């Protein structure tokens, strides 16, 4: 039976570095940033999508469809709480979580599928990340074996520490463009790379 994989999209942050506006609602190619990431997940080989919201939750929810929504009341504490909220919302039958950041609008379903396909060829406990030009990026696929550790993370560091701790279980898949590395932190990030 194929492993059940669900995407978790982290979209709860307050966009402090972007300025007064919520970056996830800024348009790229006539669509809000968060919509690009949700669309990529909807077109990918995953069994469901969980969108974790917090800051500006109603406005973010209004511009996306096709995802289950989880509200992270602790979003101000950092990314770890959003990751934990997404993991906690997954059904027991889910074998792995494909974790995406909502501020990476250049990701496409092909990037996600490469990670998913690589995981399906590996043992159950393999963590998979895409790599462009020698640098690891996002999304990261986490098997259920690591869910307890993901739930225990705190602060704004995400799961980087776990990737170091389990370096022997991390496997990579090469991609041919830098979309897996590029996020949006400031308005100039959008100006430097206009979108589709």
Structure description:
- The chain is α/β, with parallel strands linked by helices and 196 residues long.
- It has one domain (5-183): Spore Coat Polysaccharide Biosynthesis Protein SpsA, Chain A (Alpha-Beta Complex).
- It contains seven helices and ten strands.
- It has helices at residues 33-42, 57-62, 79-88, 109-120, 147-151, 160-165, 187-192; strands spanning 5-11, 27-28, 31-32, 49-53, 68-71, 96-101, 127-132, 135-136, 140-143, 170-174.
- The strands form three sheets. The protein has a five-stranded mixed beta sheet with strand order 5-4-1-6-9, sandwiched between helices. It has a three-stranded mixed beta sheet with strand order 8-7-10, with helices on one face.
CATH class: Alpha Beta
Please bin the fraction of helical residues: 25-40%
Number of strands: 10
What portion of the residues fall into strands of 2 or more residues?
A: 15-25%
How many H/I helices?
7
The CATH architecture category equals: Alpha-Beta Complex
The total tally of domains equals 1
Average of pLDDT: 92
Q: How do the strands line up in the largest sheet?
A: 5-4-1-6-9
Name given to the CATH homologous superfamily: Spore Coat Polysaccharide Biosynthesis Protein SpsA, Chain A
Shape: globular
**Order of H and E elements:** EEEHEHEHEHEEEHHEH
Radius of gyration: 15 Å
- Kindly report how far apart the N and C termini lie: 37 Å
What structural class do you assign from the helix and strand content? alpha/beta
Q: Could you name the ranges where pLDDT drops below 50 across 5 or more consecutive residues?
A: none
